[in-house]
Every structure is written in structure tokens, then in C-alpha cells.
Amino acid sequence: MHHALPNGAEDYLKPALAHNRIDSGLSFVTEQTHPIELIGDKTIPKYAFVRNPYSRVLSAYLNKIEPYAEGVRGENDDNNYFYRVYTEVDAYHCNNLPLVSKVNFYCFLLWLTNVNNVHTRNEHWRSQVELLQTGSVDYTFIGKLENLDDDDAPTLLNYIGCDIDFPSQKKVSFAPTNATSKLEKYYTEQELKLVNALFLSDFEFFEYDLITDSLELKC
Questions:
Q1: 10-residue block means of pLDDT along the chain (219 residues)?
Q2: What are phi and psi of 89, to 5 degrees?
Q3: CA-to-CA separations, 43 to 6, 135, 139, in angstroms, rounded
Q4: From CA 40, how far away is CA 49, in angstroms rounded?
Q5: For 7, which DSSP code?
Q6: Residue 84 has what pLDDT?
Q7: For residue 129, what are the contacts with CB-CB under 8 A and spacing of at least 6?
Q8: Cβ count within 10 A of residue 130
Q9: Mind telling me which InterPro entries this protein's record contains (predicted)?
């Protein structure tokens, strides 16, 4: 078997290509002539990876919201979209939690819970069940990020007949938020309650354990 890359850039270890539709070399369903028919075609294998809702939503907050709340990023930084999202979260925080000094994880979760608009439905924190349309798309395999290295990445590569080893995070040089190791710091019972309600469908469909006691987060 050859190390063929039938779809995608040859420099697949370059993280900048992950969100670059022009240079990534990937074909996207939304660019196809009949995308709905393509998705519904049961002869075409479909694969997806999901992440534990606790670490996923915290990672989104740490990467997209907290840097603005902490002043690490500002209005003129390169990602102005998330600065606009942050200003909306901050406005919610000021109007509803005036005694809290600045936007924190709890403020962010309350905003997600109580506001319904294009920003609260952003793909970085929208339900994975909704994003993947699990009720209408028949997936060949759904892996979990937590099992990526040990089981699920090798399983997927075997499915697609690829003999390239799955690269480590170090090889990709992708800067992680390390959200999983920070769960204990950011979660109390009040944050757990909000996340459990926000992402109940993800917990149930992908069989992630619900946690109600923050002591369970201790390593």
C-alpha cells in the first residue's frame, strides 16, 4: 500500500491548513452540487470524532473567550469575530451579573444557556449531536478524542486503508488549551449543572458520563 493522499494537502502536519479551505486540498460537502444526496448516500462511508462536553466547552472558552476577558487579546487582534462574540458575552455579564468583576466560565455558560442567537449557536460550542445531524446521517464510525491515540485513530485509519501513522500533537505543533487537565480549576457544581443541561443530548448519544459532584473531577 502506498502513502497516498487522495484528498488533502501533502503537508498534512501543517496546522495552519486545518482551517484553510483554499489551501487545505480538501473537498467539502457544502461545495458539492447535491450535498444532501451525498450525505444521504448509504454507500459512502462517513466518519466523525467527538469530544467530552466538559472539556470541549471549556476548551472553547479558554481559547475564544478568556484571552479577551484577561486582556491577553484585544479588539485589533487577528480574530475579530470572537472579539465581537466576547463583547456580547461581556454585555450579558454586565447586565445580569454586575457583582462579578469580569467574564468568567460561569458567565459564559449562563450566556449560552439564556441567549439564543447566531453567536450562541457557533460550531465551537453547539451540540455535537446537532452539528453531526446524528438523527439523519448514518455514520460508519464515530470516534472519541479521548481515545484518539490508543484506539480510535488506528481504527479509523484501518477503515480507510491508510498506512500512515496518526501524528502526535507534538509533530503537528498544535498549541493545546489543556482543558482536560483544568477541569477541576474551572468546574464547581454550578458549572456542571449548566453543562449537563446544555449538552445532555451529547452525553446521552455519545455515552459520556454525567458528573454532578466536582470532587469527581479530581485527578
A1: 51 69 76 81 89 97 96 84 96 95 97 97 97 92 86 81 69 65 94 98 97 81
A2: -65, -40
A3: 19, 18, 11
A4: 19
A5: S
A6: 94
A7: 135, 201, 202, 205, 206
A8: 13
A9: Carb_sulfotrans_8-10, Sulfotransferase
